[in-house]
Write a structure and sequence with these properties.
alpha/beta; Hex-like_dom2; 8-stranded parallel barrel; Chitobiase, domain 2; 26% strand; Immunoglobulin-like; TIM Barrel; globular; 17 helices; 39 strands
Length: 779
């Protein structure tokens, strides 16, 4: 008897993938990051313009911050009294009394029907103010009703950071301050300012004026980085860019300090120095006077297996004493502007090819007994560390500063993840966790949809930044203390406007805030996304911020298998509407509006496409989701008699550029291979088409999706197209319902010399992605 697919399976799948949004409650407390301890009370406190603020320190920046909020958002000019005898039927008391045992960022907030009491000092008081502000309702009227509650709160990590790259694209002081305001709202306390790179030097250095006269400016270009951007042409004027004067730097530092944010400058060395070298070519080994600030054109080749090659020398000369004199002056001026512990020196992605070719560098290494290029960079980092320490700062840099051996007294900003972080923590190196593959690179895509704006690739949805635990598994309690905290990174190759910046960080920044503040065991993404997040999305909507509107579903593109389907959706933003189509066309506000649960029954072998879009009251739109409802017919397996290991293959030599083109020549070679790889005689020196044929053994009755990590691949199962890398995502083949046993397989691969091996995968509805191994294949 053939197995069947039933409604129960489908509904279970819907629940497990979190498709439907639950109803959120605006009356519930929605503070981000979630406080450590909250005890809801009964009733509400009515806040009005008559509410008296009593505090012994009315000049405290936190108190002024609250006053400004009340005036700007509610038009309240609340009286502030310092006397302990302050009277009024509505009272907010802000006090530092009873906080002797509090940690630096700890606070206590009690809201009762008659009085609000906030206890804290310094940063703790400021964060208590932020939590109090978040208790105010989104809907404004003459008075504000705040829920009664008792909060006792402090952060998990002392370092909760956000990095902004202002080299690739420059942001003004006002725009930086706006970002600091957003950080403060969500209790982020470290602003990592990436001030220098190949595309621009953004900080005034008075002892080297050409760093901003030349290094801050590049030739203007239209379009996106690395997208057919031309390099600078001879005589072309550099007019695109900008920089911060030292007075502007001081103003940003002051502004951040009032919001309990420390500013950490980054001067990226020894690589990523093209802007500095454009101003002072003698800083590099090539000393090329034609070096220009990069305008976004390609200047390197990255290899599939890792590593890269630079076309232009962008590294400082680690053997030249004048370079260290330069760095001593630069770091000296920078250190005077930033009154905090850390000074970031980058240290990542330093191309050493020009060092290797330089006779002077080779002679220096021989004289100093430096064994290799990693050791040479370690020598450089050691020298820079001495300079930084002499300025009473501690050096922090990306993982690569440890190449060639750890340098004493440095801290590391880890971008490679748990494995390297565990090793670093065991060496007792202080760490800030900022791995790109854990949702913390905000220039990565927020979904797999083609409708996402241009980005740096990767996949960093909100749930990743929320669920991330910065402490690697396996560390002892003592070792875990070296994890200082967490940081999100805004690299700006593809972020050139405030609007794009807002889209890329909101709401992902809220996930970062939760990870930096909240204990792991207290995080619950389902509750957060359904009850807390909508309140903040509504605030973004009201403020006019260009936030990313969540989808109607938790996915963007999927196939659901079964005989019947039920969808019960809640708009993710208060006041927004969901529109849908059932004809595979893009939905808009002129299509069907979702108003009630929908049920569908699917005959055998039939499918139907549901597409949805969310449109907010201001007209902002989500990406479109595609849901294929499918009731596939079982494809029976074939006889496995007389099969042998391996696949048959045929090779066609042709100038094909796409699998959709017809072949105009016959095959030139054929044979049998036990691996899904080009025959050795073709690998590394040819291009063409190879077609594999044979059988694949499927482990059980199930619904299967097929895929490949390679480009230009087609997979056919039982004569049916199962995967086509050249098909648009909206037209990809449906999965196949296969019986356990042997099925015909054909794989067409338009190969290139540099990538001879195929990586093929299958994924079933009951298991994750599995690589197709040689043992599964026969002919």
């Amino acid at each position: 008897m053939m197995p069947s697919l039933n409604k129960t399976i489908v509904l279970l799948f819907l629940v497990l993938t979190g498709i439907a949004h639950c109803v959120y409650s605006q009356s519930s407390v929605a503070i981000v990051p979630t406080p450590l301890n909250m005890l809801p009370g009964k009733g509400n406190f009515t806040f009005s313009a008559l509410t008296v603020i009593r505090t012994a320190h009315p000049e405290d920046p936190a108190v002024r911050f609250l006053q400004n909020y009340l005036l700007e958002q509610w038009r309240y000019r609340n009286p502030v009294q310092s006397s302990s005898k302050a009277v009024g039927s509505s009272l907010l008391e802000i006090t530092g009394e009873g906080t002797e045992g509090f940690e630096a960022e700890e606070y206590e907030l009690v809201v009762s029907p008659a009085k609000i009491t906030l206890k804290g000092k310094g940063a703790g008081l400021f964060y208590g103010i932020q939590s109090l502000i978040q208790l105010f309702p989104n809907q404004r009227s003459g008075t504000a009703s705040l829920p009664c509650i008792k909060i006792k709160d402090r952060p998990r990590f002392g370092y909760r950071g956000l990095m902004l790259d202002v080299s690739r694209h420059f942001f003004t002081v006002r725009q930086v301050k706006d970002l600091l305001d957003l950080m403060a709202q969500y209790k982020l306390n470290r602003f990592h300012w990436h001030l220098t790179d190949d595309q621009g030097w953004r900080i005034e250095i008075r002892s080297y004026p050409k760093l901003t006269e030349v290094g801050a400016w590049r030739v203007p270009r239209l379009g996106d980085f690395n997208q057919m951007i031309d390099p600078p042409k001879p005589g072309e004027k550099a007019t695109d860019g900008g920089y911060y004067t030292q007075e502007e730097i001081k103003e940003v530092v002051r502004y951040a300090s009032e919001r309990q944010i420390e500013v950490i400058p980054e001067i990226d060395v020894p690589g990523h120095c093209m802007a500095a070298i454009a101003a002072y070519p003698e800083l590099s080994v090539t000393k090329n006077p034609e070096t220009k600030v990069n305008p976004g054109s390609s200047f390197a080749r990255w290899f599939p297996g890792g590593g890269f090659e630079m076309y232009v020398d962008n590294a400082l000369n680690p053997t030249d004493e004048k370079v260290y004199q330069f760095l001593d002056q630069v770091i000296g001026e920078v250190a005077q502007l930033f009154p905090y512990k850390y000074l970031h020196i980058g240290g990542d992605e330093c191309y050493k090819g020009f060092w290797e070719k330089d006779a002077g560098v080779q002679a220096f290494m021989k004289r100093m007994n430096i064994k290799d290029m990693h050791a040479l960079q370690s020598y450089f980092i050691g020298r820079v560390n001495d300079i930084v320490r002499a300025k009473n700062k501690q050096l922090i840099g990306w993982d690569e500063i440890l190449e060639g051996g750890a340098t004493k007294g440095v801290a590391v900003m880890n971008r490679f993840g748990a494995k390297s972080a565990g090793e670093q923590a065991r060496q007792q190196i202080p760490l800030v966790m900022a791995p790109g593959n854990q949702g913390l690179y905000f220039d990565y895509a927020q979904s797999a949809s083609d409708m996402e704006p241009i980005n740096h690739g990767g996949y960093s949805p909100l749930w990743k930044s929320y669920n991330y635990d910065p402490v690697p598994p396996g560390l002892s309690k003592t070792e875990a203390q070296y994890i200082l905290g967490v940081e999100g990174c805004i690299w700006t190759e593809h972020i050139g406007t405030v609007s794009k910046l807002q889209y890329m960080i909101l709401p992902r920044m809220l996930g970062l805030a939760e990870t930096g503040w909240s204990e792991v065991q207290r995080k619950n993404y389902e509750h957060f996304s359904k009850n807390v997040l909508p309140v903040h999305l509504e605030r973004f909507e009201q403020s006019g911020a260009n936030y990313r509107v969540p989808n109607a579903f938790s996915y963007t593109d999927t196939v659901l298998v079964g005989t019947s389907f039920n969808f019960n959706l809640i708009p993710p933003v208060p006041g927004s509407k969901i529109y849908y189509t059932l004809n595979n066309k893009m939905p808009g506000d002129f299509d069907h509006e979702y108003k009630q649960p929908m049920d569908f029954v699917m005959p055998e072998s039939a499918s139907r496409v549901l597409k949805t879009i969310v449109i907010t009251p201001s007209g902002r739109r989500s990406v479109v989701t595609r849901t294929v409802m499918y009731n596939p017919k079982l494809l029976p397996s074939l006889s496995s008699a007389n099969l042998r290991r391996g696949l048959k293959y045929k090779v066609y030599k042709d100038s094909l550029t796409s699998l959709t083109q017809p072949l105009v020549v016959k095959d030139v070679d054929s044979g049998i291979t036990k691996t899904i790889t080009l025959p050795e005689k073709y690998a590394g020196k040819s291009k063409g088409l190879i077609a594999f044929e044979g059988f694949i053994s499927m482990p059980k009755d199930d619904v299967y999706h097929f895929s490949s990590a390679n480009k230009s691949v087609q997979i056919y199962i039982g004569g049916k197209l199962a995967f086509d890398s050249e098909n648009p995502k909206s037209d990809k083949p449906l999965p196949l319902f296969l019986q356990k046993g042997q099925h015909q397989i054909q794989v067409n691969y338009l190969f290139r010399a540099e990538n001879p091996k195929l990586a093929l995968f299958f994924r079933s509805h009951s298991a994750g992605e599995i690589a197709i191994s040689e043992s599964m294949l026969a002919h």
